Amino acid sequence: MAIICPKCQHENPEGTLYCGKCAAPLKIAKGSDATKTLITAKESLKKGTTLAGRYTIIEELGRGGMGVVYKAEDTKLKRTVALKFLPPELTHIPDASDRFMREAQAAAALDHPNICTVYEFDKAEDTSFISMAYIEGQSLKRKIESGPIELEETLRIAEQVSEGLQEAHKKGIVHRDIKSSNIMIDERSQAKIMDFGLARVAGRTLLTKDGSTMGTVAYMSPEQAKGEEVDHRTDIWSLGVVLYEMLTGEIPFKGEHDQAVIHSILHRQPASLKKAKPDALSGLEDIVFQALAKKPSGRYSNMEEFAEDLAAVAEGLKPFKARPALPEKSIAVLPFINDSPDQENTYFINGVMEEILGNLQKIKALRVISRTSVEQYRDRKKSVREIADELGVNYIVEGSAQKYGNAFRLRAQLIMAAQETHLWGESFQQKIGDIEDIFNIQITIAKSIAEALRAVISPEEKRIIEKIPDADLAVYDDFLKARSHIYDGRREALNKALEALTSGVAKNPGWAPLYAGLAEVWLWIQQNGFEQPSVTAPQIIENLNKALALDPDLAGAHYLSAMIAHLVDWDWEKSEKEFLKALAINPNDALSRGLYAHLLLIMHRKDEALAQNELALSLDPLNPMMKLTNIGTLLQAGEYQASLSLAEEAVANDPDNLNLNQMIEIAAYRLKQYDKVIRAVRHILPFPLEEDAYKDIERIYSESGIVAAYGKIVERLERYAESQPVGLMDMAFRYLVADEPDKAMDWVEKEFEMHDPNMTYITTPARYFERLFGDPRFIAICEKMNLPVDEKE
């Protein structure tokens, strides 16, 4: 099934990620093959076609990232060859022909029995091609798909590929696209490395413009997936993936779409080989996992060392190189089980778990999943490995506790998820006389887990973790009850939270977390529309200032301060300062990182923003709010296709979601996918759109286009706005779609005076309002808001 490019309407083969005509990103159907190369060619040469006066086409053999390969006869030298052609779809892309030429030069410089021989580089009818040895046999990918490969043969193939790559690396050539489909096994069972199409010769410029990522997603090293500079160690990683694939029949990093695969590569650890391949030789798993170390420095330093260890294992010896000490120190603390006779103590047990989680989050050396993502595992219906895989972590903390009167018992254990092995565990049982007793247990557990993972705790982190609250047990009990009500989120629950926190303040007016809690509750009351900002704002600011005055180490208070500086004061410098304070205290705060990314986009620091966004998502991967924030961040960054694809995926389960449909409207409009714009707008207007009215808009769109359809929409919005409040995006953006920039500018000025929080996004890389960038009135507003305006895209 062809994929239609949303930008130029060009038909692309199924599985293509980027349009062959205009290079625009394409949406891949769910379940598509994650092992396809990132560019796929289209056109074919007919059998019998003769090129360059000597090559006669016999049949097509396959397609790859930089060309189509044919079997042909060299009539001059009377031999069968393989011809690889630069596809026509790529000829318009800058430097594509140069990359193809460099492939030929790189491959021709290599003479090794495990590398396919290149004969010549030539052109015919303005089409570049490479002539190379034709190999009778099958690809390693096909061999793997046909059934299990004997262990002895697996090791022999891996050794041969490593030897071929050694030769390439010695000459400064990095393959960059090692995968099972790029390795041929000939009739003599000899491995041949094919396709140096993505090769980078040391000392030359990157083969992809601006370092853009090319290669095959499932086999990419973490640094290649992030578009960073790579060296020979990226081939070591990819060969590690191939070796894992040969041993298990599966690739180690999987997902339903490319972003999911890349997330797995960056953050997850493959399942243990011992379960998939129980007969694997001792030490083989160590070799694979060292090759798959996330950081290049953790892998083998060169291919020779890799080959030496493969040979050693084949001879029954232990590998010479030690496996990296530990995988990424990523951890999830599951909700503790309440074993108390009185289940009303659940809020207390939850509070203890959250304090332990909070202490671990303060350790920069750890990546700790947020409470919102682990909460769904309270019932423990999945195995530790399944939970860890879904959360993208390598370690799980489990615990159970009992409380009856002032007696308290707690058990906790740290588990390495892939092997389901216990690294640490301890039981605590004591009478609780004051708050110090319970906090000492929580501090001990967090420090013990860090020690078991060899995570260094800085002196400043140690100071904050070991801080004992200046409160008694009764006040702490009020605080824990309030936290449980805040997580509920309903109006009556938030009122109970206010009561508990107010009770705590009456008992101890000097404990900062109580005021931070009050500020947070009032913020949620405002956000949920339970009270007007005129009522909530003074409460938020007063309690926030008290909290910070009493204790400057409260990350949550600094986060709230950053948000006020951002949305209310439009003070970007102060907002960043407060975000950085919050993240210095709690580097694992997903929400702070996610919203800090938005601030960075407002300041046109896109690369930093996307990095913060990626980390935020990895810290709270299952939280619907964080997923929504991620889609919004991608949209604000101008990553329209990625944002649209994720929003459409999410809206399938929530068709009337206003936020998702609004993001679809904007992204689809920027991508000129106007059918999707019209479908989305029905769900996001501030008034119900009757069926007849919607059909009328559809008819106008069908007959006269998007501008006319939005002209009708803004007519209705104007009538509605006469008596009801309407926001910036409701009016200004839609006036622009309706080709009425003057009215759009009028509305921007109005919303500036109204201090609409959405005004902060008017100049982000999403460029919603780029038609106004040259308007003197728009420029004046941006100057008042201290917003950068980049008139050039």
Proper CATH architecture of the domain at 50-314: Orthogonal Bundle
CATH topology of the domain at 50-314: Transferase(Phosphotransferase), domain 1
Spatial strand order of the main sheet? 3-4-5-6-8-7
| CATH top level assignment of the domain at 50-314 | Mainly Alpha
Category from helices, strands and their pairing: alpha+beta
Annotation, overall tally of beta strands: 19
Helix content: 40-55%
Roughly how many Å is the radius of gyration? Answer: 30 Å
Largest sheet: 6 strands, antiparallel
Low-confidence stretches: 15-24, 28-42, 201-214
Mean pLDDT: 84
Q: Tell me the overall shape.
A: flat
User: Beta-strand percentage?
Assistant: 5-15%
- At the fourth level of CATH, the homologous superfamily of the domain at 50-314 is Transferase(Phosphotransferase) domain 1
Question: Please, how many helices?
Answer: 31
The separation of the N and C termini measures: 34 Å
Task: Explain what this protein looks like in three dimensions.
By secondary structure, the chain is of the alpha+beta class. Among the domains are: 50-314, Transferase(Phosphotransferase) domain 1 (Transferase(Phosphotransferase), domain 1, Orthogonal Bundle); 330-463, 3-Layer(aba) Sandwich (Rossmann fold), CATH 3.40.50; 685-793, no CATH class. Strands 3-4-5-6-8-7 form a 6-stranded antiparallel beta sheet, with helices on one face. Strands 14, 15, 16, 17, 18 and 19 form a 6-stranded mixed beta sheet that branches. Strands 9-11-12 form a 3-stranded antiparallel beta sheet. Strand 18 and strand 19 form a beta hairpin. Helix 15 (473-488) runs parallel beside helix 17 and helix 22 (606-619) runs antiparallel to helix 23. The radius of gyration is 30 Å and the shape is flat. It starts with a strand and ends in an 8-residue tail after the last helix. Mean pLDDT is 84; it is low at 15-24, 28-42 and 201-214.
